[in-house]
Protein backbone atom coordinates (compact mmCIF):
# COMPACT_ATOMS: atom_id res chain seq x y z
CA UNK A 1 0.00 0.00 0.00
CA UNK A 2 1.46 3.34 -1.03
CA UNK A 3 1.46 6.65 0.76
CA UNK A 4 -0.41 9.11 -1.43
CA UNK A 5 -1.86 12.59 -1.57
CA UNK A 6 -3.78 11.79 -4.75
CA UNK A 7 -7.41 10.78 -4.62
CA UNK A 8 -8.07 7.24 -5.75
CA UNK A 9 -11.54 6.70 -7.09
CA UNK A 10 -12.98 9.84 -5.45
CA UNK A 11 -15.19 11.72 -7.91
CA UNK A 12 -17.95 13.13 -5.69
CA UNK A 13 -15.88 15.94 -4.11
CA UNK A 14 -12.35 17.30 -3.87
CA UNK A 15 -9.65 15.83 -1.68
CA UNK A 16 -9.45 19.11 0.23
CA UNK A 17 -13.17 18.96 1.05
CA UNK A 18 -12.91 15.28 1.96
CA UNK A 19 -10.01 15.88 4.31
CA UNK A 20 -11.85 18.78 5.95
CA UNK A 21 -14.78 16.43 6.56
CA UNK A 22 -12.47 13.85 8.14
CA UNK A 23 -10.80 16.37 10.46
CA UNK A 24 -14.24 17.67 11.50
CA UNK A 25 -15.68 14.12 11.78
CA UNK A 26 -18.59 15.41 9.71
CA UNK A 27 -21.37 12.82 9.87
CA UNK A 28 -23.15 14.57 7.00
CA UNK A 29 -20.47 13.19 4.66
CA UNK A 30 -21.02 9.58 5.73
CA UNK A 31 -22.07 7.60 2.67
CA UNK A 32 -20.37 10.05 0.29
CA UNK A 33 -16.89 8.57 0.62
CA UNK A 34 -14.55 6.62 2.91
CA UNK A 35 -10.95 7.30 3.84
CA UNK A 36 -8.21 4.72 4.21
CA UNK A 37 -5.04 4.93 6.28
CA UNK A 38 -1.95 3.40 4.70
CA UNK A 39 -0.16 2.82 8.00
CA UNK A 40 -3.00 0.78 9.54
CA UNK A 41 -4.57 -0.76 6.45
CA UNK A 42 -8.03 0.31 7.69
CA UNK A 43 -10.72 2.43 6.02
CA UNK A 44 -13.35 4.47 7.87
CA UNK A 45 -16.35 6.74 7.57
CA UNK A 46 -15.64 10.50 7.71
CA UNK A 47 -17.32 10.68 11.15
CA UNK A 48 -15.29 7.87 12.70
CA UNK A 49 -14.19 8.71 16.23
CA UNK A 50 -10.82 6.99 15.92
CA UNK A 51 -7.59 8.96 16.22
CA UNK A 52 -7.04 11.23 13.22
CA UNK A 53 -4.26 10.00 10.90
CA UNK A 54 -1.58 12.11 9.26
CA UNK A 55 -2.72 13.59 5.98
CA UNK A 56 0.11 12.02 3.98
CA UNK A 57 -1.07 8.55 5.02
CA UNK A 58 -4.68 9.02 3.87
CA UNK A 59 -6.37 7.88 0.67
CA UNK A 60 -9.99 8.56 -0.28
CA UNK A 61 -12.48 6.32 -2.06
CA UNK A 62 -15.99 6.94 -3.33
CA UNK A 63 -17.20 3.66 -1.83
CA UNK A 64 -16.17 0.92 0.61
CA UNK A 65 -15.85 -1.44 -2.36
CA UNK A 66 -13.08 0.69 -3.83
CA UNK A 67 -11.17 0.63 -0.56
CA UNK A 68 -11.56 -3.15 -0.31
CA UNK A 69 -10.27 -3.60 -3.86
CA UNK A 70 -7.23 -1.53 -2.91
CA UNK A 71 -6.46 -3.95 -0.08
CA UNK A 72 -7.88 -2.08 2.93
CA UNK A 73 -10.13 -3.63 5.57
CA UNK A 74 -13.20 -2.06 7.24
CA UNK A 75 -12.91 -0.29 10.59
CA UNK A 76 -14.58 -2.28 13.36
CA UNK A 77 -15.50 0.92 15.18
CA UNK A 78 -17.49 2.86 12.57
CA UNK A 79 -18.39 -0.17 10.36
CA UNK A 80 -18.25 1.64 7.02
CA UNK A 81 -19.48 -1.34 5.02
CA UNK A 82 -22.87 -1.34 6.74
CA UNK A 83 -25.16 0.59 4.35
CA UNK A 84 -27.70 1.69 6.95
CA UNK A 85 -25.24 2.31 9.75
CA UNK A 86 -26.69 5.75 10.45
CA UNK A 87 -30.25 4.45 10.60
CA UNK A 88 -29.15 1.48 12.72
CA UNK A 89 -27.30 3.78 15.09
CA UNK A 90 -30.35 6.01 15.55
CA UNK A 91 -32.52 2.94 16.12
CA UNK A 92 -30.07 1.60 18.71
CA UNK A 93 -29.93 4.94 20.54
CA UNK A 94 -33.73 5.16 20.69
CA UNK A 95 -33.93 1.58 21.94
CA UNK A 96 -31.35 2.15 24.68
CA UNK A 97 -33.06 5.35 25.86
CA UNK A 98 -36.51 3.77 25.92
CA UNK A 99 -35.19 0.64 27.68
CA UNK A 100 -33.63 2.79 30.39
CA UNK A 101 -37.02 4.17 31.40
CA UNK A 102 -36.57 6.80 34.11
CA UNK A 103 -32.78 6.45 34.24
CA UNK A 104 -30.57 9.02 32.51
CA UNK A 105 -28.51 7.64 29.63
CA UNK A 106 -25.26 9.51 29.00
CA UNK A 107 -23.41 9.81 25.70
CA UNK A 108 -20.68 7.66 27.23
CA UNK A 109 -23.17 4.88 27.95
CA UNK A 110 -24.57 5.11 24.43
CA UNK A 111 -21.05 4.97 22.98
CA UNK A 112 -20.13 1.86 24.98
CA UNK A 113 -23.30 0.08 23.89
CA UNK A 114 -23.27 1.04 20.20
CA UNK A 115 -19.57 1.13 19.39
CA UNK A 116 -19.89 4.63 17.93
CA UNK A 117 -18.08 7.66 19.27
CA UNK A 118 -20.02 10.17 21.43
CA UNK A 119 -19.44 12.84 18.76
CA UNK A 120 -20.84 10.66 16.00
CA UNK A 121 -23.84 9.68 18.10
CA UNK A 122 -24.61 13.32 18.88
CA UNK A 123 -24.27 14.52 15.29
CA UNK A 124 -26.00 11.60 13.61
CA UNK A 125 -28.94 11.56 16.03
CA UNK A 126 -29.49 15.32 15.89
CA UNK A 127 -29.21 15.41 12.11
CA UNK A 128 -31.92 12.73 11.81
CA UNK A 129 -34.30 13.77 14.60
CA UNK A 130 -33.60 17.46 15.19
CA UNK A 131 -32.82 16.64 18.83
CA UNK A 132 -29.74 15.58 20.75
CA UNK A 133 -30.01 12.28 22.67
CA UNK A 134 -30.45 14.30 25.89
CA UNK A 135 -33.27 16.37 24.37
CA UNK A 136 -34.87 13.14 23.16
CA UNK A 137 -34.73 11.76 26.71
CA UNK A 138 -36.30 14.97 28.02
CA UNK A 139 -39.07 14.68 25.43
CA UNK A 140 -39.74 11.06 26.41
CA UNK A 141 -39.87 12.07 30.08
CA UNK A 142 -42.34 14.81 29.20
CA UNK A 143 -44.53 12.31 27.33
CA UNK A 144 -44.63 10.05 30.39
CA UNK A 145 -45.51 13.00 32.62
CA UNK A 146 -48.41 14.05 30.39
CA UNK A 147 -49.66 10.46 30.29
CA UNK A 148 -49.63 10.12 34.09
CA UNK A 149 -51.32 13.49 34.65
CA UNK A 150 -54.05 12.72 32.13
CA UNK A 151 -54.62 9.41 33.90
CA UNK A 152 -55.50 11.37 37.04
CA UNK A 153 -52.36 10.71 39.08
CA UNK A 154 -51.35 13.29 41.65
CA UNK A 155 -48.79 15.86 40.55
CA UNK A 156 -46.10 14.47 42.88
CA UNK A 157 -46.66 10.85 41.86
CA UNK A 158 -46.87 11.68 38.14
CA UNK A 159 -43.72 13.77 38.27
CA UNK A 160 -41.70 11.13 40.11
CA UNK A 161 -43.05 8.27 37.97
CA UNK A 162 -42.05 10.18 34.84
CA UNK A 163 -38.43 10.24 35.98
CA UNK A 164 -37.99 13.69 37.51
CA UNK A 165 -36.07 12.39 40.49
CA UNK A 166 -34.43 15.57 41.77
CA UNK A 167 -37.03 16.79 44.25
CA UNK A 168 -35.43 20.25 44.48
CA UNK A 169 -36.16 20.83 40.78
CA UNK A 170 -39.38 18.85 40.25
CA UNK A 171 -41.58 21.88 39.70
CA UNK A 172 -39.14 23.65 37.38
CA UNK A 173 -38.20 20.64 35.25
CA UNK A 174 -41.76 19.36 34.88
CA UNK A 175 -42.99 22.83 34.04
CA UNK A 176 -40.39 23.18 31.29
CA UNK A 177 -41.60 19.93 29.72
CA UNK A 178 -45.29 20.81 29.92
CA UNK A 179 -45.18 24.50 29.12
CA UNK A 180 -47.07 25.20 32.36
CA UNK A 181 -47.03 23.99 35.93
CA UNK A 182 -48.06 20.33 36.40
CA UNK A 183 -51.10 21.32 38.47
CA UNK A 184 -52.37 23.62 35.72
CA UNK A 185 -51.77 20.94 33.08
CA UNK A 186 -53.67 18.38 35.13
CA UNK A 187 -56.68 20.68 35.32
CA UNK A 188 -56.69 21.20 31.52
CA UNK A 189 -58.88 24.28 31.87
CA UNK A 190 -61.21 22.80 34.49
CA UNK A 191 -63.60 25.50 35.69
CA UNK A 192 -62.69 27.86 32.84
CA UNK A 193 -65.27 29.33 30.50
CA UNK A 194 -63.70 30.07 27.15
CA UNK A 195 -65.14 31.89 24.18
CA UNK A 196 -63.41 31.70 20.83
CA UNK A 197 -63.72 32.99 17.32
CA UNK A 198 -61.90 32.66 14.02
CA UNK A 199 -61.35 35.01 11.13
CA UNK A 200 -59.37 35.09 7.90
CA UNK A 201 -56.21 37.21 7.72
CA UNK A 202 -53.42 37.65 5.16
CA UNK A 203 -51.38 35.19 7.27
CA UNK A 204 -54.05 32.47 7.35
CA UNK A 205 -56.90 31.69 9.70
CA UNK A 206 -56.65 33.39 13.09
CA UNK A 207 -58.20 31.91 16.24
CA UNK A 208 -58.55 33.94 19.41
CA UNK A 209 -59.81 32.40 22.68
CA UNK A 210 -60.87 34.56 25.61
CA UNK A 211 -61.80 34.08 29.28
CA UNK A 212 -63.19 36.64 31.69
CA UNK A 213 -59.57 37.38 32.67
CA UNK A 214 -58.30 37.91 29.13
CA UNK A 215 -56.95 36.19 26.02
CA UNK A 216 -55.75 32.64 26.73
CA UNK A 217 -54.91 31.46 23.22
CA UNK A 218 -54.05 32.96 19.84
CA UNK A 219 -53.28 30.63 16.96
CA UNK A 220 -52.58 30.89 13.25
CA UNK A 221 -53.26 28.07 10.83
CA UNK A 222 -54.72 26.92 7.55
CA UNK A 223 -58.22 25.96 8.69
CA UNK A 224 -60.72 26.99 11.37
CA UNK A 225 -61.76 23.42 12.22
CA UNK A 226 -58.22 22.26 12.91
CA UNK A 227 -57.54 25.30 15.11
CA UNK A 228 -60.75 24.73 17.08
CA UNK A 229 -59.85 21.04 17.53
CA UNK A 230 -56.43 22.02 18.90
CA UNK A 231 -58.06 24.49 21.32
CA UNK A 232 -60.49 21.86 22.61
CA UNK A 233 -57.60 19.41 23.09
CA UNK A 234 -55.50 21.93 24.97
CA UNK A 235 -58.40 22.94 27.26
CA UNK A 236 -60.23 19.61 27.28
CA UNK A 237 -61.87 20.20 30.68
CA UNK A 238 -63.04 23.75 29.97
CA UNK A 239 -66.45 24.95 28.86
CA UNK A 240 -65.86 26.26 25.33
CA UNK A 241 -68.37 28.23 23.23
CA UNK A 242 -68.42 30.57 20.20
CA UNK A 243 -67.47 34.18 20.79
CA UNK A 244 -69.94 36.76 22.07
CA UNK A 245 -69.53 40.53 22.06
CA UNK A 246 -66.60 40.89 24.49
CA UNK A 247 -64.55 38.16 22.83
CA UNK A 248 -65.39 39.56 19.40
CA UNK A 249 -63.82 42.86 20.43
CA UNK A 250 -60.68 40.98 21.49
CA UNK A 251 -60.50 39.27 18.11
CA UNK A 252 -60.65 42.69 16.42
CA UNK A 253 -57.86 43.91 18.70
CA UNK A 254 -55.62 40.96 17.78
CA UNK A 255 -56.32 41.54 14.07
CA UNK A 256 -55.23 45.16 14.62
CA UNK A 257 -52.02 43.94 16.27
CA UNK A 258 -51.46 41.59 13.35
CA UNK A 259 -51.72 44.58 11.02
CA UNK A 260 -49.07 46.45 13.01
CA UNK A 261 -51.34 48.73 15.02
CA UNK A 262 -51.15 49.19 18.78
CA UNK A 263 -53.90 47.45 20.73
CA UNK A 264 -54.61 47.13 24.44
CA UNK A 265 -54.98 43.45 25.22
CA UNK A 266 -55.59 41.61 28.49
CA UNK A 267 -54.00 38.19 28.81
CA UNK A 268 -54.89 35.07 30.79
CA UNK A 269 -51.69 33.00 30.72
CA UNK A 270 -50.53 29.81 32.42
CA UNK A 271 -46.80 29.15 32.50
CA UNK A 272 -43.78 28.56 34.66
CA UNK A 273 -42.13 31.49 36.41
CA UNK A 274 -39.31 31.45 33.89
CA UNK A 275 -41.66 31.35 30.91
CA UNK A 276 -43.60 34.32 32.23
CA UNK A 277 -40.31 36.22 32.58
CA UNK A 278 -39.39 35.39 28.99
CA UNK A 279 -42.81 36.34 27.65
CA UNK A 280 -42.68 39.70 29.41
CA UNK A 281 -39.23 40.29 27.92
CA UNK A 282 -40.59 39.54 24.44
CA UNK A 283 -43.31 42.14 24.88
CA UNK A 284 -40.60 44.74 25.47
CA UNK A 285 -38.99 44.18 22.05
CA UNK A 286 -40.05 47.15 19.90
CA UNK A 287 -41.98 46.54 16.71
CA UNK A 288 -39.61 46.39 13.75
CA UNK A 289 -36.71 45.06 15.84
CA UNK A 290 -35.43 41.59 16.69
CA UNK A 291 -33.36 40.01 19.46
CA UNK A 292 -31.38 36.78 19.54
CA UNK A 293 -32.31 33.99 21.94
CA UNK A 294 -28.99 34.61 23.67
CA UNK A 295 -29.69 38.34 24.02
CA UNK A 296 -33.07 37.63 25.64
CA UNK A 297 -31.43 35.17 28.04
CA UNK A 298 -28.76 37.74 28.92
CA UNK A 299 -31.40 40.42 29.54
CA UNK A 300 -32.93 38.13 32.17
CA UNK A 301 -29.57 37.64 33.89
CA UNK A 302 -29.45 34.05 32.62
CA UNK A 303 -26.87 34.12 29.77
CA UNK A 304 -26.59 30.31 29.72
CA UNK A 305 -30.36 29.82 29.34
CA UNK A 306 -30.51 30.27 25.56
CA UNK A 307 -32.20 26.90 24.99
CA UNK A 308 -34.69 27.53 27.77
CA UNK A 309 -35.60 30.85 26.14
CA UNK A 310 -36.11 29.05 22.82
CA UNK A 311 -38.41 26.53 24.52
CA UNK A 312 -40.41 29.31 26.17
CA UNK A 313 -40.85 30.93 22.75
CA UNK A 314 -42.02 27.61 21.28
CA UNK A 315 -44.55 27.19 24.12
CA UNK A 316 -46.05 30.66 23.72
CA UNK A 317 -49.80 30.13 23.19
CA UNK A 318 -50.69 33.71 22.28
CA UNK A 319 -48.99 34.32 18.94
CA UNK A 320 -48.43 37.92 17.83
CA UNK A 321 -49.64 39.32 21.18
CA UNK A 322 -46.48 37.95 22.79
CA UNK A 323 -44.14 38.50 19.83
CA UNK A 324 -41.92 35.43 19.89
CA UNK A 325 -41.52 35.97 16.13
CA UNK A 326 -39.15 38.84 17.03
CA UNK A 327 -36.60 36.39 18.46
CA UNK A 328 -34.12 34.94 15.99
CA UNK A 329 -30.93 32.89 16.08
CA UNK A 330 -27.60 34.45 16.97
CA UNK A 331 -26.29 33.95 13.40
CA UNK A 332 -29.16 36.01 11.99
CA UNK A 333 -31.23 33.06 10.74
CA UNK A 334 -34.92 33.20 11.62
CA UNK A 335 -34.96 30.01 13.66
CA UNK A 336 -38.17 28.10 14.33
CA UNK A 337 -41.72 29.34 14.79
CA UNK A 338 -44.73 27.46 16.13
CA UNK A 339 -46.96 28.79 13.36
CA UNK A 340 -44.55 28.24 10.46
CA UNK A 341 -41.37 29.95 9.33
CA UNK A 342 -43.09 31.73 6.43
CA UNK A 343 -45.53 33.38 8.82
CA UNK A 344 -42.61 34.46 10.98
CA UNK A 345 -40.90 36.05 8.00
CA UNK A 346 -44.13 37.75 6.92
CA UNK A 347 -44.75 39.15 10.41
CA UNK A 348 -41.26 40.59 10.62
CA UNK A 349 -41.56 42.10 7.13
CA UNK A 350 -44.90 43.72 8.03
CA UNK A 351 -43.54 45.15 11.27
CA UNK A 352 -40.42 46.45 9.58
CA UNK A 353 -42.56 48.40 7.11
CA UNK A 354 -45.07 49.57 9.73
CA UNK A 355 -42.32 50.85 12.04
CA UNK A 356 -40.82 53.18 9.42
CA UNK A 357 -41.78 56.89 9.67
Strand content: 5-15%
The sequence of SSEs as H and E is HEEEHEHHHHHHHEEEHEHHEHHEH
CATH class of the largest domain: Mainly Alpha
* Strand order in the largest sheet: 3-1-2-4
Number of strand elements: 10
Structural class: alpha/beta
Largest sheet: 4 strands, mixed
Ranges where pLDDT stays below 50 over 5 or more residues in a row are 1-7, 166-170, 174-180
Describe this structure in words.
With 357 residues, the protein is an alpha/beta fold. The chain folds into four domains: 15-74, DNA Methylphosphotriester Repair Domain (3-Layer(aba) Sandwich); 91-178, Arc Repressor Mutant, subunit A (Orthogonal Bundle); 193-258, Methylated DNA-protein cysteine methyltransferase domain (Double Stranded RNA Binding Domain); 273-354, Orthogonal Bundle (Arc Repressor Mutant, subunit A), CATH 1.10.10. Helices cover 44% and strands 13% of the residues. The protein contains 15 helices and ten strands. It has helices at 15-24, 64-69, 85-100, 107-114, 118-129, 133-150, 155-161, 170-178, 182-187, 224-234, 245-258, 273-283, 293-299, 306-314, 341-354; strands at residues 34-37, 42-44, 58-61, 73-74, 193-201, 204-211, 214-221, 239-242, 291-292, 327-328. The strands form three sheets. A four-stranded mixed beta sheet has the order 3-1-2-4. The chain has a four-stranded mixed beta sheet with strand order 7-6-5-8, with helices on both faces. Strands 9-10 form a two-stranded parallel ribbon. α6 runs antiparallel to α7. The termini are far apart. Residues 1-7, 166-170 and 174-180 have low confidence and may be disordered.
Amino acid sequence: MQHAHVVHGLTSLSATTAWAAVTARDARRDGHFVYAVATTGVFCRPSCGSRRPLRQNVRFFDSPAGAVRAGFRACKRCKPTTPDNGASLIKDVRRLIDAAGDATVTLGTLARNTGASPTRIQRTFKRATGMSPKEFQDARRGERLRKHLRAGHSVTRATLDAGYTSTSRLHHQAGEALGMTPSVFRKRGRGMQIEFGTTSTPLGVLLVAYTERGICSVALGDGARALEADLRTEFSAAEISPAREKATRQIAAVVAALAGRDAALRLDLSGTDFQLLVWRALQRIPRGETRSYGAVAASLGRPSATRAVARACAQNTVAVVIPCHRVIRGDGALGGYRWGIERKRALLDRESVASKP
